[in-house]
UniProtKB/TrEMBL annotation:
It comes from Aquilegia coerulea (Rocky mountain columbine). SUPFAM superfamilies: Ypt/Rab-GAP domain of gyp1p (SSF47923). This is Rab-GAP TBC domain-containing protein. GO terms for cellular component: cytoplasm. Keywords: GTPase activation.
Amino acid sequence: MTDESESFWCFVELMESLGPNFDRDQNGMHSQLFALLKLVELLDSPLHNYFKQNDCLNYFFCFRWIVIQFKREFEYETTMRLWEVLWTHYLSEHLHLYVCVAILKRHRRKIMDEHMDFDTLLKFINELSGHIDANATLRGAEALCLCAGENGAACIPPGTPPSLLVETGMLYSQQDDI
């Protein structure tokens, strides 16, 4: 973007949309982590059972992925492409959660074979930064979303924040005023 005011209003909309991720009570994050738990339970029950047996059901190891929508996991250009896909709400307004499941599913064997406890898992997930194949992950997330279908949508509690709010239409109304 070359127009400073357009950049400003895009940033304002982004921050308003991601606002539930930064609430003091963390309700937005907790509802997304709970939805992630339910999606893993539906789409990868062996991994879900492993997390259950190893006291990892809080999914806090995925916190960073969700709070800033994978910003630290990829290079700038890849992050911009990922955000564009997520924010189209193609297939689901919660596609970011399916991306989380796709990453976890891709690394399930290593997680389980190495008997990772919560601390080891958190370290492993953080060290994935810069080593995640974005294209394969997006293909996996799309396949998981299609596979889950209505059952996947039913796993996500009402009020769970989407990857980006779209009902405000603020960006479009700003452009119409110009």
